[in-house]
Specification:
8 strands; eight-stranded mixed beta sheet; single chain; alpha/beta; 11 helices
Length: 299
């Protein structure tokens, strides 16, 4: 019998994407009765609650749903951990779409090596969205290069995020769960670091999924996203400072990093647009640094 796996979906105002995310879970080549879905809606003001309600009626006891009121991602993810019945927890963001074999690969990695506490697949390119593909290309390079000997490019560790990532429930509990004081960005990096310190291994896998980044498609979208990341990292700086290097997040470092990634991304993906990565990185690092400084000024 397949192990029970809990799929945790934290969402806020996700009506544009949520149904596609859930439907990708329902077509997995994994015993559906062994998939539990837990929704945490953190104060949506759109049709997200109606969509969740529809799936609760459709799937019955396989679904648990909770509604919070803006307590943030740390609290929302802990709500899933505390109510999960699965041996493993796969976090799926509302703007992510799994390929049909995704769950089976995640469980297979966990069962093969009992020391693995975290595993994650790799992003797929999205046709017709250059900004989004430039954004996810470095993540594809990181995943395909995971575990290789470090070089100048891989000087700092590349940590997985939470979306599309599978956690061994025991590892999450041993690490103390998510830090609920982290309401914005950084809650995933903080937990991954603690799980690794507890002796669990991180392992990448080749299963693919789509990460739509909330419909990211314009420079304005990119700016808002990284301003929020920088602001959130400042707010959780004490907990997550091991997860990033501030000098390497400066705009100039972004340009250099973009140059280095462009050659690796072209080698893996064979798309000339990858040579725009220096501009992409320089722009988003400027947004990140601006958000980070705003967080400092508010201290």
């Amino acid at each position: 019998m397949d192990p029970l796996l809990t799929v945790g979906i934290c969402v806020r105002n996700g009506e544009a994407f949520l149904s596609d995310a859930v439907e990708s879970i329902l077509v997995q080549d994994y015993a559906q009765e062994r998939l539990q879905i837990i929704f945490v809606d953190d104060g949506s003001q759109d049709r997200t609650p109606e969509i969740i309600s529809r799936y609760r009626v459709m799937l019955g006891s396989r679904v648990k749903a909770f509604r919070t009121s803006g307590q943030g991602l740390g609290h929302a993810r802990n709500c899933i951990v505390k109510n999960a019945d699965g041996e493993f927890i796969l976090f799926v963001d509302a703007d992510e779409i799994l390929t049909p074999g995704y769950v089976r690969v995640q469980v297979g990695v966990m069962q093969k090596n009992l020391k693995v506490g975290i595993t994650a697949g790799v992003f797929k390119l999205v046709l017709g969205n250059s900004i989004l593909n430039l954004e996810i290309a470095p993540h594809i390079v990181n995943q395909k290069s995971f575990g290789r000997p470090k070089s100048f490019l891989w000087k700092t560790d590349k940590l997985v995020g939470t979306g599309g990532t599978t956690f061994r429930t025991l590892a999450v509990l041993q690490a103390g769960g998510f830090d609920e004081s982290i309401k914005g960005a950084g809650e995933d990096t903080d937990l991954v670091l603690r799980i690794r310190k507890a002796g669990w291994q991180l392992e990448a896998n080749a299963a693919e999924f789509y990460e739509l980044h909330g419909g990211l498609s314009t420079p304005r979208d990119l700016w808002r996203k990284y301003f929020w990341y920088g602001y959130g990292c400042q707010k959780s700086f004490v907990q997550t400072r091991e997860g990033f290097s501030f000098p390497r997040m400066s705009p100039m470092a972004g340009l250099v990093t973009g140059v280095l990634y462009s050659f690796a991304a072209y080698r893996f993906l064979r798309q000339k647009q990858m040579f725009l990565l220096p501009l992409h990185f320089g722009f988003k690092h400027t947004a990140w640094a601006t958000g980070f400084m705003k967080g400092q000024l508010e201290k």
